[in-house]
Structure formats: C-alpha cells, structure tokens
Amino acid sequence: MTDIPASAGAGPAAAEAPVRRGGRARRWRLAAWLIGRSFASVLGLVLVAGIVGLALLGPWIVPYPEHVVGQVNLADKLKPPSAANWFGTDEVGNDILTRIIVGARLSLLVGVGITFAAAAIGVPLGILAGTAGGRLRETIMRFTDLFLSVPGLVLAIALVAALGPGIGNAMIALVLVWWPGYVRLAESKALAIREEPYIEAARVCGASRFRILWRHVLPNAISPLIVKMSMDIGQAILAVASLGFIGLGAKPPTPEWGAMISIARGYLPDYWWYAVFPGLFIYLSVLGFNLLGDGLRDILDPRSHRT
C-alpha cells in the first residue's frame, strides 16, 4: 500500500494557511513601502515611536528621579542648560529634562484615553444614526449639532470650570467635546455604505441590525476613523496642555507640559529654557501624530496603492 503523506490528509485548510500568511506578509510589505516612500510619514513614525518610548521607559531613564515629585533645591534653581542638566532647571531647582520625560507618559495616556473614549461614544452613535435613519437619526444628529455649535476649547474650558480644575476633569471635558466629531464621520460613512449591495444581501438573508452593523458597516468605515484617531491623539495632547497652561489642568508638582509652560511664562525671556523645552515636546508630539495620520491615510486608502 502506498503511504499517503501527512500533509495530504490535512485538507484545504492546511493548504490555505501558507496563502494567508503570504497575503499578510505582502500587506505588511506594502504598508512599509507606502510609509517609507514619504519622508513626512517616516518622520511622524519616528517622532511617535520616540514619545511612546519615553512614556514607557521614562521613570527608569531619567537622570534625577527624585525631581519628579517636586523636590526643592533652591541652590540649583533656574540654572541654564549644562552637562549636569541638559535642559536646565526650574524655579525650585528640579531638572527640566527629568520632568519632561516623565510628563511624556501622562501626556500620552491622557491623549490616548481621551481619543479612545470619544471614539467609543461617537462611533456607535454615528453608525446607528447612519443605518437606522428616520426619527432616531434626527435625534442623534441634532443632539450632536448642539455640541458642535460651540467652539471645542471654549466648551472644554466651561466644563472644566464647572467640574473643577484637575487632570481627570480636563479629560472628562475633552471627551464631551471630542465625541461629536466621531458621530459626524461615522454617520457619513454609514450613509454611504448602507445602500451597498452586500448590505441589501445581508438584510435579505435575515441578518439582524446588530450583525449588519458589526460585521459589515463598521469594518468598511474603520479606515477614516483610524486616521482621525491617530491625528486626534496629538490634538488631545495639545488641548490638555492648553487647559494646563491656563490653570485648569494638572496641578504642580505633576510634571505636565502645559502646566510647566504656565509657570515658565513668568520667567521669560531671561530663563527661556524653562518654557522652550516643554513647548518643543508638545510641538513634536502633535507634529508626529499628524504626520503619522497622513501616513496611515496612504496605507488605508486603496486609491493610493495605484499611484
């Protein structure tokens, strides 16, 4: 009797596995090529990777860990950048580089938290409004328009003033400001998708509304949402820094970039390093996430694959 190879009895699934792995590898190579062909996208990826690295490793790589909690050392106050303190020191003698690095974790967590919370509220409401239509859509969209009618930062300031200063209340206020943008984007994508033939086919086959939303509408609307979320992380970091700058965000001695600049403005222009370096990190963070968002748009937009 002729021996049958073990692989022959594995069926079509075993034969399809290498094909799937090869398809994933090609998609990753395509993504790397689309990112690599743009210097701006590579720069954004490097900046974001740097910020994430600082957030993950910050407490273990800072030169003066004891300065994170606001230790007072008046003998070293407001010293310019030097070999001992690369970014200089602040008004109580703390190393500014140490506080900026540790502040990267807070800024990144706050930016990511605000963005994901806003998306978790806005995306389901937008997809539901776009697919349901009728009175439900009108109710959701008019409520959304109510929030969009007020400038975002002004509304956030009013909410924080009502809730009380603090990083937690700042995050709550910014989530309440951010979610309407996701409703608008998700609703527009859902309106475009709901008339597609495969949606009609799913309805004819008896698929429930939840299954249609989860299995068909959301996967096809996810690309622009990912791009928006990547850009909004940088904007959320900037918004939190803005609230900290006017005294409505994190409070000293919390190492938050906006609060550091708020204190440093009283020492300009003589002690310029105190404000310049936290501001530079805010700028690089926002720039990095914006450029990364542009790169993700190139990857997730099928039209860019043909260029």
Description:
With 307 residues, the protein is mostly helical. 72% of the residues lie in helices and 0% in strands. The chain has helices at 11-36, 39-61, 96-132, 134-148, 152-163, 167-193, 197-204, 209-245, 257-264, 273-300. The longest helix is centred in the middle third of the chain and has 37 residues, at 96-132. The N and C termini lie far apart (56 Å). The mean pLDDT is 82.
Strands, count: 0
> Could you estimate the helical fraction of the residues in percent?
over 70%
Task: Give the integer mean of the pLDDT values.
Answer: 82
Beta-strand fraction estimate? under 5%
Unreliable sequence segments: none
Shape: globular
Helical segment count: 10
Main sheet specs = none
Radius of gyration over all CA atoms, rounded? 25 Å
Structural class: mainly alpha
Query: What distance lies between the first and last C-alpha atoms, to the nearest angstrom?
Result: 56 Å
Seen as an oligomer or otherwise, the chain set is single chain
Instruction: Give the topology string: H per helix, E per strand.
Output: HHHHHHHHHH
Offer a few descriptive terms.
72% helix; single chain; mainly alpha; globular
Can I get a quick summary?
By secondary structure, the protein is mainly alpha-helical. The protein has ten helices and no strands.
